[in-house]
């Protein structure tokens, strides 16, 4: 499944709506932690493509083995025609941007990027665990500190968990 994205900030909302409808068709609800996390990741990666490249992009959603609440993997990919690699950075306190890839790193089970033709593909994957005896899926668990790959804390975000974000009061 894929969606073509124009280089327009309004496309981020359209990408979220598109992803929600695809998830619902696969049995993943909006209120399920996996669904909430995936929609946030769609927002971050599509925003990065729109804001930092100014070029069209393609959003792909690959659902593997996700039927009837079973375990599986969701892979999200955003491909664009800019050869510039993604540049994770740590934003300072009042900056409104610069936290996206830190959030992707904290929320996704795996993520990365590769050159593709004249551009690149940024991807991330989320695993859906098989429900345990209590009905818990293993998604949501313990919050982890929100830090950049440099080890610095991400200002404005105190923790990242698979069930959502916890923001520090400013």
Q: Would you mind describing this structure in some detail?
A:
- The protein has about 170 residues and is of the alpha+beta class.
- The chain is built from three helices and eight strands.
- A hairpin with a 7-residue loop joins β2 and β3.
- The longest helix is centred in the first third of the chain and has 21 residues, at about 35-55.
- α2 (about 35-55) runs antiparallel to α3.
- It is about 25% helix and about 30% strand.
- It has a five-stranded antiparallel β-sheet, covered by helices on one side. Strands 6-7-8 form a three-stranded antiparallel β-sheet.
**What overall form do the CA principal axes indicate?**
globular
Structural class: alpha+beta
**Unreliable residue stretches:** 130-150, 154-170
Cα-based radius of gyration, to the nearest Å: 16 Å
Query: What series of H and E elements makes up the topology?
Result: EHHEEHEEEEE
First and last CA, distance: 39 Å
Furnish the topology, listing elements before pairings.
Blueprint: E1 2-5, H1 11-25, H2 33-53, E2 57-64, E3 72-80, H3 100-107, E4 110-116, E5 119-128, E6 144-145, E7 157-161, E8 164-167
Antiparallel strand pairs: 1-2, 2-3, 3-5, 4-5, 6-7, 7-8
Helix pairs in contact: 1-2, 2-3
């Amino acid at each position: 499944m894929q969606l073509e994205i124009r280089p327009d900030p309004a496309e981020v909302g359209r990408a979220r709506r598109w992803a929600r409808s695809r998830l619902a068709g696969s049995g993943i609800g909006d209120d399920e932690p996996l669904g909430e996390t995936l929609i946030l990741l769609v927002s971050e990666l599509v925003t990065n493509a729109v804001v930092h490249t100014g070029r069209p992009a393609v959003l792909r959603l690959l659902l593997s083995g996700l039927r009837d609440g079973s375990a599986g993997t969701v892979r999200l990919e955003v491909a664009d025609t800019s050869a510039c690699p993604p540049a994770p950075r740590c934003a300072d306190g009042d900056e409104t941007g610069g936290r996206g890839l830190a959030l992707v790193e904290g929320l996704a089970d795996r993520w990365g990027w590769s050159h593709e033709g004249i551009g690149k593909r940024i991807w991330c994957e989320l695993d859906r665990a098989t429900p345990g005896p209590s009905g818990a899926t293993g998604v949501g668990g313990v919050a982890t500190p929100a830090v950049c790959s440099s080890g610095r804390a991400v200002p404005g975000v105190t923790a990242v968990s698979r069930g959502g974000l916890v923001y520090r009061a400013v």
